[in-house]
Amino acid sequence: MKDFGQTGRFGLLAAAALLATASTGMDAAAQQQAVVPNAPALEWDPNDPRIGLGAGWLDAESAISGLELLAAIPRAEGFFNPTTPADGRFNNTDLAFQGHRLIQGNYNGFQIIDISNPADPVYELSVVCPGGQGDVSIYGDLIFMSAQETRGRLDCGIEGVNDSISAERMRGVRIFDVSDMSNPTQVAAVQSCRGSHTHTVVTQPGDTENVYVYIQGTSRVRPGGELAGCSGGMPDEDPNTALFRIEVVKVPLANPAAAEIVNMPRIFADDQGNISGLWQGGDHGEGTQSSRLTNQCHDITAYPGIGLAGGACSGNGILLDISDAENPRRVGEVADPNFAYWHSATFNNDGDVVVFTDEWGGGSAPRCRASDPATWGANAIFRIGEGGQMELAGYYKLPVPQTETENCVAHNGSIIPVPGRDIMAQAWYQGGLSLMDFTDPENPYEIAFFDRGPLSIESLFTGGYWSTYWYNGRLYGAEISRGIDVFRLTPSEHLSEAEIRAAESVMMGEFNAQLQPKVEWTPSVDVAQAYLDQMVRSNRILNTRAQEIQRVLNGNASASQLNSLAASIEADVVQIEAGELGGDAERMARLASTLRGMAM
Questions:
Q1: Strands of 260-263's sheet, edge to edge?
Q2: What ranges make up the beta strands (E) of 157-197?
Q3: CATH 2.130.10-classified regions of the chain
Q4: Which H, E and C letters describe 431-490, residue by residue?
Q5: Which CATH class is domain 2-117+268-511?
Q6: What is d(CA 103, CA 513) in angstroms, rounded to the nearest whole number?
Q7: Is the pTM of this model over 0.85?
Q8: pLDDT digits (tens, 9 = 90+) for 262-317
Q9: Residue 268: which of 306, 303, 290, 300 has the closest Cα?
Q10: Which is it for strands 62-65 and 2-3: parallel, antiparallel or unpaired?
Protein backbone atom coordinates (compact mmCIF):
# COMPACT_ATOMS: atom_id res chain seq x y z
CA MET A 1 0.00 0.00 0.00
CA LYS A 2 1.43 3.35 -1.06
CA ASP A 3 1.27 6.29 1.35
CA PHE A 4 1.63 9.79 -0.06
CA GLY A 5 1.47 12.89 2.10
CA GLN A 6 0.62 15.39 -0.63
CA THR A 7 -2.88 15.67 -2.05
CA GLY A 8 -3.78 17.62 -5.14
CA ARG A 9 -5.99 20.70 -4.93
CA PHE A 10 -8.69 20.63 -7.58
CA GLY A 11 -9.85 24.12 -8.42
CA LEU A 12 -13.51 24.11 -9.43
CA LEU A 13 -15.29 26.56 -11.63
CA ALA A 14 -17.57 29.05 -9.92
CA ALA A 15 -21.29 29.28 -10.36
CA ALA A 16 -21.00 32.24 -12.68
CA ALA A 17 -19.32 30.03 -15.28
CA LEU A 18 -21.50 26.94 -14.78
CA LEU A 19 -25.10 27.92 -14.27
CA ALA A 20 -27.65 25.94 -12.30
CA THR A 21 -31.22 26.57 -13.33
CA ALA A 22 -33.58 27.39 -10.47
CA SER A 23 -36.99 25.95 -11.31
CA THR A 24 -38.94 28.23 -9.01
CA GLY A 25 -41.18 30.31 -11.17
CA MET A 26 -39.75 28.76 -14.36
CA ASP A 27 -41.85 26.52 -16.56
CA ALA A 28 -40.53 23.41 -18.27
CA ALA A 29 -40.11 25.10 -21.64
CA ALA A 30 -37.95 27.80 -20.14
CA GLN A 31 -35.87 25.21 -18.32
CA GLN A 32 -35.30 23.28 -21.52
CA GLN A 33 -34.03 26.43 -23.23
CA ALA A 34 -31.33 27.00 -20.64
CA VAL A 35 -27.94 26.62 -22.33
CA VAL A 36 -24.52 26.39 -20.68
CA PRO A 37 -21.04 26.10 -22.16
CA ASN A 38 -19.67 22.65 -22.80
CA ALA A 39 -18.71 21.00 -19.52
CA PRO A 40 -15.03 21.49 -18.61
CA ALA A 41 -12.57 18.63 -18.79
CA LEU A 42 -11.19 16.97 -15.69
CA GLU A 43 -7.84 18.26 -14.45
CA TRP A 44 -5.45 16.18 -12.35
CA ASP A 45 -1.92 15.79 -11.08
CA PRO A 46 -0.10 13.35 -13.43
CA ASN A 47 1.94 12.14 -10.45
CA ASP A 48 -1.12 11.22 -8.40
CA PRO A 49 -0.38 7.80 -6.84
CA ARG A 50 -3.86 6.52 -7.65
CA ILE A 51 -2.97 6.38 -11.33
CA GLY A 52 -1.89 2.94 -12.52
CA LEU A 53 -2.70 0.90 -9.40
CA GLY A 54 -2.52 -2.85 -9.94
CA ALA A 55 -5.82 -4.70 -10.25
CA GLY A 56 -7.18 -7.52 -8.11
CA TRP A 57 -10.21 -8.62 -6.16
CA LEU A 58 -8.61 -9.24 -2.77
CA ASP A 59 -5.04 -8.27 -3.66
CA ALA A 60 -5.33 -4.98 -5.58
CA GLU A 61 -2.70 -2.29 -5.00
CA SER A 62 -3.77 0.77 -3.06
CA ALA A 63 -2.81 4.39 -2.44
CA ILE A 64 -3.55 6.45 0.65
CA SER A 65 -3.04 10.00 1.93
CA GLY A 66 -4.20 11.67 5.12
CA LEU A 67 -5.61 8.40 6.43
CA GLU A 68 -4.52 5.14 8.02
CA LEU A 69 -6.24 1.89 7.06
CA LEU A 70 -6.93 0.12 10.36
CA ALA A 71 -8.89 -2.89 9.15
CA ALA A 72 -10.24 -4.56 6.01
CA ILE A 73 -12.58 -7.49 6.50
CA PRO A 74 -14.16 -9.57 3.70
CA ARG A 75 -17.85 -10.12 3.19
CA ALA A 76 -19.51 -12.65 5.44
CA GLU A 77 -20.35 -16.14 4.24
CA GLY A 78 -23.77 -16.34 2.64
CA PHE A 79 -23.37 -12.83 1.27
CA PHE A 80 -21.06 -13.46 -1.65
CA ASN A 81 -20.17 -15.88 -4.39
CA PRO A 82 -16.48 -16.70 -3.81
CA THR A 83 -15.88 -17.64 -7.45
CA THR A 84 -16.34 -14.10 -8.83
CA PRO A 85 -15.25 -10.66 -7.65
CA ALA A 86 -18.81 -9.36 -7.83
CA ASP A 87 -22.26 -10.87 -7.96
CA GLY A 88 -25.12 -8.37 -8.01
CA ARG A 89 -27.36 -10.66 -5.97
CA PHE A 90 -25.03 -10.24 -3.01
CA ASN A 91 -23.80 -6.65 -3.24
CA ASN A 92 -23.08 -4.91 0.04
CA THR A 93 -24.99 -1.65 0.35
CA ASP A 94 -25.43 1.03 3.01
CA LEU A 95 -24.44 1.34 6.68
CA ALA A 96 -26.06 2.31 9.98
CA PHE A 97 -24.56 2.49 13.47
CA GLN A 98 -25.64 2.07 17.07
CA GLY A 99 -23.44 1.80 20.14
CA HIS A 100 -20.60 -0.59 19.36
CA ARG A 101 -22.36 -2.11 16.37
CA LEU A 102 -22.35 -1.49 12.64
CA ILE A 103 -25.25 -2.73 10.52
CA GLN A 104 -24.46 -3.31 6.85
CA GLY A 105 -27.16 -3.81 4.26
CA ASN A 106 -26.89 -6.27 1.41
CA TYR A 107 -29.07 -7.26 -1.53
CA ASN A 108 -29.51 -10.56 0.31
CA GLY A 109 -30.21 -9.24 3.84
CA PHE A 110 -28.08 -7.49 6.44
CA GLN A 111 -25.15 -8.13 8.76
CA ILE A 112 -24.34 -6.95 12.27
CA ILE A 113 -20.69 -6.25 13.02
CA ASP A 114 -19.10 -5.61 16.41
CA ILE A 115 -16.87 -2.52 16.17
CA SER A 116 -15.98 -2.27 19.87
CA ASN A 117 -12.41 -2.32 18.58
CA PRO A 118 -12.57 -0.50 15.22
CA ALA A 119 -9.19 -1.96 14.27
CA ASP A 120 -10.61 -5.48 14.63
CA PRO A 121 -14.26 -5.63 13.50
CA VAL A 122 -16.00 -8.95 14.12
CA TYR A 123 -19.07 -10.31 12.35
CA GLU A 124 -21.71 -10.93 14.98
CA LEU A 125 -24.71 -12.03 12.94
CA SER A 126 -26.00 -12.35 9.39
CA VAL A 127 -29.69 -12.16 8.55
CA VAL A 128 -30.60 -13.60 5.15
CA CYS A 129 -33.64 -11.79 3.77
CA PRO A 130 -33.47 -11.19 -0.01
CA GLY A 131 -35.22 -8.26 -1.60
CA GLY A 132 -32.63 -6.16 -3.34
CA GLN A 133 -31.06 -2.85 -2.40
CA GLY A 134 -31.17 -3.65 1.31
CA ASP A 135 -30.43 -0.13 2.56
CA VAL A 136 -30.63 -0.12 6.36
CA SER A 137 -31.35 2.30 9.20
CA ILE A 138 -31.57 1.76 12.93
CA TYR A 139 -33.61 3.56 15.56
CA GLY A 140 -33.76 2.26 19.11
CA ASP A 141 -34.74 -1.40 18.98
CA LEU A 142 -35.74 -1.28 15.31
CA ILE A 143 -33.85 -1.95 12.09
CA PHE A 144 -35.47 -0.77 8.86
CA MET A 145 -34.52 -2.32 5.51
CA SER A 146 -35.50 -1.37 1.96
CA ALA A 147 -36.76 -3.99 -0.50
CA GLN A 148 -37.53 -3.26 -4.13
CA GLU A 149 -36.89 -6.37 -6.23
CA THR A 150 -39.71 -8.68 -7.29
CA ARG A 151 -37.92 -11.68 -5.71
CA GLY A 152 -38.49 -10.34 -2.19
CA ARG A 153 -40.84 -12.41 -0.04
CA LEU A 154 -42.82 -11.42 3.04
CA ASP A 155 -41.28 -14.38 4.89
CA CYS A 156 -37.68 -13.53 3.85
CA GLY A 157 -37.51 -16.82 1.95
CA ILE A 158 -34.68 -17.37 -0.51
CA GLU A 159 -36.81 -19.17 -3.12
CA GLY A 160 -38.14 -15.92 -4.62
CA VAL A 161 -41.60 -15.32 -6.10
CA ASN A 162 -42.44 -16.87 -9.45
CA ASP A 163 -45.91 -15.45 -10.11
CA SER A 164 -46.26 -12.03 -11.72
CA ILE A 165 -48.91 -11.19 -9.13
CA SER A 166 -48.49 -12.70 -5.68
CA ALA A 167 -49.61 -12.04 -2.11
CA GLU A 168 -46.24 -13.44 -0.99
CA ARG A 169 -44.21 -10.64 -2.62
CA MET A 170 -42.64 -7.92 -0.45
CA ARG A 171 -41.67 -4.56 -1.93
CA GLY A 172 -41.40 -1.77 0.59
CA VAL A 173 -39.80 -1.34 4.02
CA ARG A 174 -39.22 -4.22 6.41
CA ILE A 175 -39.08 -3.55 10.16
CA PHE A 176 -37.07 -5.83 12.45
CA ASP A 177 -37.18 -5.87 16.24
CA VAL A 178 -33.60 -6.14 17.51
CA SER A 179 -34.25 -5.71 21.23
CA ASP A 180 -32.51 -9.09 21.31
CA MET A 181 -29.69 -8.30 18.90
CA SER A 182 -28.81 -11.98 18.64
CA ASN A 183 -32.27 -12.79 17.27
CA PRO A 184 -33.69 -10.10 14.94
CA THR A 185 -37.38 -10.64 14.27
CA GLN A 186 -39.35 -9.12 11.42
CA VAL A 187 -42.39 -7.47 12.99
CA ALA A 188 -43.77 -5.47 10.06
CA ALA A 189 -43.53 -5.22 6.29
CA VAL A 190 -44.92 -1.98 4.90
CA GLN A 191 -45.83 -2.50 1.25
CA SER A 192 -45.53 0.33 -1.29
CA CYS A 193 -46.43 0.67 -4.94
CA ARG A 194 -42.88 1.25 -6.24
CA GLY A 195 -41.02 -0.65 -3.57
CA SER A 196 -38.32 1.02 -1.50
CA HIS A 197 -35.12 1.86 -3.31
CA THR A 198 -34.09 3.84 -0.25
CA HIS A 199 -35.78 5.13 2.88
CA THR A 200 -35.22 7.85 5.45
CA VAL A 201 -35.87 7.69 9.18
CA VAL A 202 -37.28 11.03 10.34
CA THR A 203 -37.88 12.20 13.89
CA GLN A 204 -40.42 14.76 15.04
CA PRO A 205 -39.04 17.03 17.79
CA GLY A 206 -41.16 16.58 20.90
CA ASP A 207 -42.68 13.26 19.74
CA THR A 208 -41.17 10.42 21.77
CA GLU A 209 -43.86 7.88 20.87
CA ASN A 210 -43.39 7.63 17.10
CA VAL A 211 -40.75 7.67 14.41
CA TYR A 212 -41.42 8.28 10.73
CA VAL A 213 -40.00 6.63 7.62
CA TYR A 214 -40.05 8.26 4.19
CA ILE A 215 -40.12 5.69 1.38
CA GLN A 216 -38.37 6.57 -1.85
CA GLY A 217 -39.53 4.24 -4.61
CA THR A 218 -37.88 4.30 -8.03
CA SER A 219 -39.02 1.03 -9.62
CA ARG A 220 -41.94 0.53 -11.97
CA VAL A 221 -45.34 0.54 -10.28
CA ARG A 222 -46.54 -2.90 -9.24
CA PRO A 223 -49.94 -4.18 -10.47
CA GLY A 224 -53.06 -3.04 -8.67
CA GLY A 225 -54.02 -6.69 -8.43
CA GLU A 226 -51.02 -7.25 -6.15
CA LEU A 227 -51.35 -4.09 -4.07
CA ALA A 228 -54.62 -2.19 -4.13
CA GLY A 229 -54.48 1.42 -5.28
CA CYS A 230 -51.30 1.13 -7.33
CA SER A 231 -51.43 2.91 -10.67
CA GLY A 232 -48.63 3.96 -12.97
CA GLY A 233 -50.62 6.35 -15.11
CA MET A 234 -49.76 9.99 -15.68
CA PRO A 235 -51.63 12.54 -13.54
CA ASP A 236 -54.01 13.52 -16.34
CA GLU A 237 -54.97 9.86 -16.69
CA ASP A 238 -55.18 9.03 -12.98
CA PRO A 239 -55.00 11.72 -10.26
CA ASN A 240 -54.22 8.94 -7.76
CA THR A 241 -51.13 7.73 -9.61
CA ALA A 242 -48.31 6.21 -7.58
CA LEU A 243 -45.91 8.48 -9.46
CA PHE A 244 -44.99 11.99 -8.27
CA ARG A 245 -45.08 11.17 -4.57
CA ILE A 246 -43.31 9.63 -1.61
CA GLU A 247 -44.86 7.60 1.20
CA VAL A 248 -44.73 8.58 4.88
CA VAL A 249 -44.84 5.65 7.32
CA LYS A 250 -45.73 6.27 10.95
CA VAL A 251 -44.14 3.75 13.31
CA PRO A 252 -45.49 3.59 16.89
CA LEU A 253 -42.43 2.71 18.95
CA ALA A 254 -44.52 0.80 21.51
CA ASN A 255 -46.10 -1.30 18.76
CA PRO A 256 -44.00 -1.22 15.55
CA ALA A 257 -46.16 -4.00 14.09
CA ALA A 258 -48.83 -1.32 13.64
CA ALA A 259 -46.64 0.74 11.31
CA GLU A 260 -48.58 2.08 8.34
CA ILE A 261 -48.50 4.63 5.56
CA VAL A 262 -50.24 7.75 6.87
CA ASN A 263 -49.51 10.18 4.06
CA MET A 264 -48.50 10.14 0.39
CA PRO A 265 -47.50 13.76 -0.13
CA ARG A 266 -47.22 15.18 -3.64
CA ILE A 267 -43.94 16.93 -2.91
CA PHE A 268 -43.42 17.44 -6.65
CA ALA A 269 -46.49 19.64 -7.01
CA ASP A 270 -46.07 23.31 -7.87
CA ASP A 271 -47.77 26.21 -6.10
CA GLN A 272 -50.90 25.65 -8.17
CA GLY A 273 -51.09 21.98 -7.23
CA ASN A 274 -49.90 20.63 -10.58
CA ILE A 275 -48.18 17.41 -9.59
CA SER A 276 -45.78 17.45 -12.53
CA GLY A 277 -44.56 20.93 -11.72
CA LEU A 278 -40.83 20.19 -11.77
CA TRP A 279 -38.35 19.06 -14.44
CA GLN A 280 -40.11 17.53 -17.42
CA GLY A 281 -37.22 15.44 -18.68
CA GLY A 282 -34.80 15.87 -21.57
CA ASP A 283 -31.66 17.97 -21.85
CA HIS A 284 -31.09 21.60 -20.96
CA GLY A 285 -29.64 22.61 -24.30
CA GLU A 286 -26.67 21.81 -26.50
CA GLY A 287 -23.74 20.29 -24.62
CA THR A 288 -25.73 19.55 -21.45
CA GLN A 289 -26.92 16.44 -19.66
CA SER A 290 -30.20 14.72 -20.38
CA SER A 291 -32.16 13.92 -17.22
CA ARG A 292 -35.37 12.12 -16.39
CA LEU A 293 -38.80 13.49 -15.66
CA THR A 294 -39.01 14.28 -11.94
CA ASN A 295 -41.60 11.83 -10.63
CA GLN A 296 -39.53 10.14 -7.89
CA CYS A 297 -36.87 10.74 -5.25
CA HIS A 298 -33.80 8.57 -5.07
CA ASP A 299 -32.72 9.76 -1.63
CA ILE A 300 -33.90 12.17 1.04
CA THR A 301 -31.65 13.34 3.87
CA ALA A 302 -33.56 14.72 6.85
CA TYR A 303 -31.98 17.30 9.15
CA PRO A 304 -34.52 17.80 11.97
CA GLY A 305 -32.12 20.17 13.76
CA ILE A 306 -32.82 22.79 11.09
CA GLY A 307 -36.31 21.59 10.13
CA LEU A 308 -35.30 20.76 6.55
CA ALA A 309 -34.68 17.76 4.33
CA GLY A 310 -32.78 17.61 1.07
CA GLY A 311 -34.30 15.49 -1.66
CA ALA A 312 -32.32 14.20 -4.63
CA CYS A 313 -35.19 13.61 -7.00
CA SER A 314 -34.49 12.45 -10.53
CA GLY A 315 -34.20 15.76 -12.45
CA ASN A 316 -34.27 18.12 -9.46
CA GLY A 317 -32.77 18.84 -6.10
CA ILE A 318 -35.43 19.93 -3.65
CA LEU A 319 -35.71 21.24 -0.10
CA LEU A 320 -38.52 20.09 2.18
CA ASP A 321 -39.88 21.69 5.32
CA ILE A 322 -40.12 18.77 7.77
CA SER A 323 -41.09 20.73 10.87
CA ASP A 324 -44.24 18.57 10.64
CA ALA A 325 -42.61 15.22 9.83
CA GLU A 326 -45.90 13.61 8.80
CA ASN A 327 -46.55 16.35 6.26
CA PRO A 328 -43.34 17.32 4.43
CA ARG A 329 -43.75 20.37 2.22
CA ARG A 330 -41.54 21.50 -0.64
CA VAL A 331 -39.99 24.94 -0.15
CA GLY A 332 -37.22 25.07 -2.74
CA GLU A 333 -35.96 23.36 -5.86
CA VAL A 334 -33.22 23.55 -8.47
CA ALA A 335 -32.34 21.90 -11.75
CA ASP A 336 -28.80 21.63 -13.12
CA PRO A 337 -27.79 21.24 -16.77
CA ASN A 338 -24.77 19.18 -15.72
CA PHE A 339 -26.74 16.57 -13.77
CA ALA A 340 -28.08 13.31 -15.18
CA TYR A 341 -29.69 11.88 -12.02
CA TRP A 342 -29.93 13.61 -8.66
CA HIS A 343 -28.86 10.91 -6.23
CA SER A 344 -28.29 12.08 -2.64
CA ALA A 345 -27.96 15.14 -0.41
CA THR A 346 -25.78 16.16 2.55
CA PHE A 347 -25.99 19.40 4.55
CA ASN A 348 -23.15 21.18 6.25
CA ASN A 349 -23.50 21.40 10.03
CA ASP A 350 -24.77 24.99 9.97
CA GLY A 351 -27.47 24.01 7.50
CA ASP A 352 -26.80 26.87 5.09
CA VAL A 353 -25.11 24.72 2.42
CA VAL A 354 -26.26 21.49 0.78
CA VAL A 355 -24.26 19.09 -1.41
CA PHE A 356 -26.15 17.15 -4.07
CA THR A 357 -24.60 14.25 -5.97
CA ASP A 358 -25.13 13.21 -9.59
CA GLU A 359 -25.18 9.46 -10.21
CA TRP A 360 -24.46 9.70 -13.93
CA GLY A 361 -24.38 6.19 -15.32
CA GLY A 362 -26.37 4.71 -12.44
CA GLY A 363 -23.37 3.61 -10.41
CA SER A 364 -22.38 0.70 -12.64
CA ALA A 365 -20.56 2.65 -15.37
CA PRO A 366 -17.07 4.18 -15.55
CA ARG A 367 -17.73 7.91 -15.23
CA CYS A 368 -14.42 9.17 -13.81
CA ARG A 369 -12.29 8.64 -16.91
CA ALA A 370 -9.91 11.27 -18.22
CA SER A 371 -12.38 11.96 -21.03
CA ASP A 372 -15.36 12.54 -18.72
CA PRO A 373 -16.40 16.13 -17.93
CA ALA A 374 -15.44 17.54 -14.53
CA THR A 375 -19.00 18.56 -13.69
CA TRP A 376 -20.80 15.38 -14.76
CA GLY A 377 -21.16 12.62 -12.16
CA ALA A 378 -19.94 15.15 -9.60
CA ASN A 379 -21.12 17.05 -6.52
CA ALA A 380 -22.94 20.35 -6.93
CA ILE A 381 -22.71 22.60 -3.88
CA PHE A 382 -25.52 25.06 -3.18
CA ARG A 383 -25.88 27.88 -0.69
CA ILE A 384 -29.30 27.94 0.97
CA GLY A 385 -30.91 31.35 1.20
CA GLU A 386 -34.11 32.80 2.56
CA GLY A 387 -37.21 30.72 2.01
CA GLY A 388 -35.27 27.70 0.77
CA GLN A 389 -33.86 29.34 -2.35
CA MET A 390 -30.67 27.64 -3.49
CA GLU A 391 -27.78 29.18 -5.40
CA LEU A 392 -25.05 27.14 -7.05
CA ALA A 393 -21.62 27.83 -5.54
CA GLY A 394 -19.35 25.21 -7.13
CA TYR A 395 -18.69 21.64 -8.17
CA TYR A 396 -16.39 18.91 -6.93
CA LYS A 397 -15.39 15.73 -8.71
CA LEU A 398 -12.84 13.10 -7.77
CA PRO A 399 -9.64 14.81 -8.96
CA VAL A 400 -7.95 11.82 -10.59
CA PRO A 401 -8.98 9.71 -13.60
CA GLN A 402 -10.10 6.12 -13.23
CA THR A 403 -10.01 3.34 -15.82
CA GLU A 404 -12.58 1.94 -18.24
CA THR A 405 -13.08 -1.10 -15.96
CA GLU A 406 -13.86 0.89 -12.79
CA ASN A 407 -17.42 1.97 -12.10
CA CYS A 408 -17.04 5.43 -10.62
CA VAL A 409 -19.34 8.35 -9.89
CA ALA A 410 -20.30 10.51 -6.90
CA HIS A 411 -22.01 8.46 -4.17
CA ASN A 412 -22.83 8.43 -0.45
CA GLY A 413 -20.92 10.25 2.27
CA SER A 414 -21.22 12.13 5.54
CA ILE A 415 -19.81 15.09 7.41
CA ILE A 416 -16.62 14.76 9.48
CA PRO A 417 -17.20 16.96 12.57
CA VAL A 418 -14.12 19.19 12.49
CA PRO A 419 -15.16 22.45 14.21
CA GLY A 420 -14.96 25.49 11.96
CA ARG A 421 -14.81 23.48 8.74
CA ASP A 422 -17.16 21.67 6.37
CA ILE A 423 -15.54 18.35 5.44
CA MET A 424 -17.31 15.46 3.77
CA ALA A 425 -16.06 11.89 3.48
CA GLN A 426 -17.46 10.44 0.28
CA ALA A 427 -17.61 7.16 -1.62
CA TRP A 428 -16.84 7.10 -5.35
CA TYR A 429 -17.41 3.37 -5.97
CA GLN A 430 -14.16 2.07 -7.52
CA GLY A 431 -12.82 5.63 -7.39
CA GLY A 432 -12.34 4.96 -3.68
CA LEU A 433 -12.74 7.34 -0.77
CA SER A 434 -12.20 11.10 -1.03
CA LEU A 435 -12.39 13.76 1.69
CA MET A 436 -13.73 17.04 0.34
CA ASP A 437 -13.33 20.36 2.16
CA PHE A 438 -16.19 22.64 1.10
CA THR A 439 -15.88 25.26 3.84
CA ASP A 440 -15.59 27.71 0.95
CA PRO A 441 -18.37 26.31 -1.27
CA GLU A 442 -17.01 28.11 -4.32
CA ASN A 443 -13.63 26.41 -3.95
CA PRO A 444 -13.93 22.82 -2.63
CA TYR A 445 -10.81 20.68 -2.63
CA GLU A 446 -9.54 17.25 -1.64
CA ILE A 447 -7.68 16.78 1.66
CA ALA A 448 -7.32 12.98 1.90
CA PHE A 449 -8.03 9.83 -0.08
CA PHE A 450 -7.85 6.05 -0.31
CA ASP A 451 -8.14 4.04 -3.49
CA ARG A 452 -7.61 0.48 -4.69
CA GLY A 453 -6.83 -0.66 -8.20
CA PRO A 454 -9.67 -2.03 -10.36
CA LEU A 455 -11.23 -5.39 -9.62
CA SER A 456 -10.14 -6.41 -13.10
CA ILE A 457 -8.23 -4.80 -15.94
CA GLU A 458 -10.09 -6.92 -18.49
CA SER A 459 -13.75 -6.63 -17.45
CA LEU A 460 -15.90 -4.15 -15.58
CA PHE A 461 -17.36 -5.60 -12.37
CA THR A 462 -19.48 -3.46 -10.06
CA GLY A 463 -17.51 -2.78 -6.91
CA GLY A 464 -15.88 -0.16 -4.74
CA TYR A 465 -17.40 1.93 -1.98
CA TRP A 466 -21.16 2.25 -1.71
CA SER A 467 -20.77 4.65 1.20
CA THR A 468 -18.14 6.04 3.55
CA TYR A 469 -19.36 7.40 6.89
CA TRP A 470 -17.82 8.92 9.98
CA TYR A 471 -18.88 7.42 13.28
CA ASN A 472 -17.35 8.07 16.69
CA GLY A 473 -13.86 8.92 15.53
CA ARG A 474 -13.41 6.51 12.64
CA LEU A 475 -14.32 6.27 8.96
CA TYR A 476 -16.13 3.15 7.76
CA GLY A 477 -16.28 2.19 4.10
CA ALA A 478 -18.91 -0.20 2.76
CA GLU A 479 -17.10 -2.08 0.02
CA ILE A 480 -19.63 -3.57 -2.39
CA SER A 481 -17.67 -6.64 -3.42
CA ARG A 482 -15.06 -6.91 -0.67
CA GLY A 483 -16.43 -6.06 2.78
CA ILE A 484 -15.76 -3.34 5.38
CA ASP A 485 -12.77 -1.00 5.65
CA VAL A 486 -11.99 1.12 8.71
CA PHE A 487 -9.81 4.26 8.70
CA ARG A 488 -8.53 6.89 11.07
CA LEU A 489 -7.50 10.41 10.13
CA THR A 490 -3.82 11.32 10.26
CA PRO A 491 -2.30 14.82 10.48
CA SER A 492 -1.30 16.48 7.22
CA GLU A 493 -0.84 19.91 5.71
CA HIS A 494 -4.64 20.04 5.49
CA LEU A 495 -5.58 18.77 8.95
CA SER A 496 -3.92 19.28 12.33
CA GLU A 497 -3.76 16.91 15.28
CA ALA A 498 -6.06 19.22 17.27
CA GLU A 499 -8.66 19.25 14.48
CA ILE A 500 -8.61 15.47 14.39
CA ARG A 501 -8.91 15.16 18.18
CA ALA A 502 -11.80 17.66 18.20
CA ALA A 503 -13.62 15.58 15.56
CA GLU A 504 -12.90 12.35 17.46
CA SER A 505 -14.40 13.87 20.62
CA VAL A 506 -17.89 13.91 19.06
CA MET A 507 -19.62 10.73 20.20
CA MET A 508 -23.04 9.49 19.10
CA GLY A 509 -25.19 6.69 20.39
CA GLU A 510 -26.66 6.11 16.95
CA PHE A 511 -26.05 7.29 13.39
CA ASN A 512 -27.99 7.03 10.14
CA ALA A 513 -26.50 9.17 7.38
CA GLN A 514 -29.95 10.08 6.05
CA LEU A 515 -30.99 11.35 9.50
CA GLN A 516 -28.33 14.01 9.83
CA PRO A 517 -27.50 15.11 13.40
CA LYS A 518 -26.61 18.66 14.37
CA VAL A 519 -23.19 18.57 16.04
CA GLU A 520 -22.25 20.68 19.04
CA TRP A 521 -18.72 20.56 20.39
CA THR A 522 -17.99 20.50 24.10
CA PRO A 523 -15.60 23.42 24.80
CA SER A 524 -12.07 22.05 25.13
CA VAL A 525 -8.45 22.85 24.42
CA ASP A 526 -8.63 20.75 21.25
CA VAL A 527 -11.61 22.67 19.89
CA ALA A 528 -9.96 26.01 20.67
CA GLN A 529 -6.68 24.83 19.16
CA ALA A 530 -8.53 23.68 16.03
CA TYR A 531 -9.88 27.20 15.45
CA LEU A 532 -6.43 28.67 16.04
CA ASP A 533 -4.77 26.16 13.68
CA GLN A 534 -7.24 27.07 10.94
CA MET A 535 -6.57 30.80 11.25
CA VAL A 536 -2.82 30.34 11.32
CA ARG A 537 -2.99 28.01 8.29
CA SER A 538 -4.93 30.59 6.29
CA ASN A 539 -2.86 33.51 7.62
CA ARG A 540 -5.96 35.25 8.99
CA ILE A 541 -4.86 36.17 12.49
CA LEU A 542 -2.20 38.57 13.77
CA ASN A 543 0.96 36.78 14.87
CA THR A 544 0.95 38.51 18.25
CA ARG A 545 -2.62 37.46 19.00
CA ALA A 546 -1.97 33.90 17.79
CA GLN A 547 1.07 33.65 20.05
CA GLU A 548 -0.92 34.94 23.02
CA ILE A 549 -3.69 32.40 22.41
CA GLN A 550 -1.16 29.59 22.03
CA ARG A 551 0.49 30.45 25.36
CA VAL A 552 -2.86 30.29 27.13
CA LEU A 553 -3.79 26.98 25.48
CA ASN A 554 -0.41 25.48 26.33
CA GLY A 555 -0.72 26.42 29.99
CA ASN A 556 -3.08 25.50 32.76
CA ALA A 557 -5.09 28.72 32.40
CA SER A 558 -7.49 29.84 35.10
CA ALA A 559 -11.09 30.79 34.41
CA SER A 560 -10.24 34.47 34.74
CA GLN A 561 -7.40 34.14 32.20
CA LEU A 562 -9.67 32.36 29.75
CA ASN A 563 -12.40 34.97 30.12
CA SER A 564 -9.91 37.81 29.79
CA LEU A 565 -8.50 36.36 26.58
CA ALA A 566 -12.03 35.78 25.27
CA ALA A 567 -12.85 39.44 25.90
CA SER A 568 -9.76 40.54 23.95
CA ILE A 569 -10.71 38.28 21.04
CA GLU A 570 -14.29 39.60 21.08
CA ALA A 571 -12.89 43.11 20.81
CA ASP A 572 -10.88 41.95 17.80
CA VAL A 573 -14.06 40.61 16.22
CA VAL A 574 -15.70 44.03 16.50
CA GLN A 575 -12.71 45.65 14.78
CA ILE A 576 -12.59 42.99 12.05
CA GLU A 577 -16.28 43.42 11.29
CA ALA A 578 -15.81 47.19 11.17
CA GLY A 579 -12.96 46.79 8.70
CA GLU A 580 -10.41 48.20 11.12
CA LEU A 581 -8.49 44.94 11.49
CA GLY A 582 -7.76 41.99 9.25
CA GLY A 583 -8.70 38.50 10.34
CA ASP A 584 -11.32 35.78 10.49
CA ALA A 585 -14.22 37.22 12.46
CA GLU A 586 -16.31 34.04 12.44
CA ARG A 587 -13.59 31.74 13.77
CA MET A 588 -12.42 34.38 16.26
CA ALA A 589 -15.96 34.57 17.63
CA ARG A 590 -16.20 30.78 17.89
CA LEU A 591 -12.83 30.65 19.61
CA ALA A 592 -13.92 33.27 22.14
CA SER A 593 -17.11 31.32 22.84
CA THR A 594 -15.08 28.13 23.31
CA LEU A 595 -12.74 29.82 25.78
CA ARG A 596 -15.70 31.10 27.81
CA GLY A 597 -17.16 27.60 27.79
CA MET A 598 -13.86 26.21 29.08
CA ALA A 599 -13.94 28.78 31.90
CA MET A 600 -17.30 27.58 33.20
A1: 198-202, 210-216, 247-252, 260-263
A2: 172-177, 185-191
A3: 2-117+268-511
A4: CCEEEEECCCCCCCEEEEEEEECCCCCCCCECCCEEEEEEECCEEEEEECCCEEEEEEEC
A5: mainly beta
A6: 12
A7: yes
A8: 999 999 987 777 887 899 999 988 889 889 899 999 999 999 999 999 999 999 99
A9: 300
A10: parallel
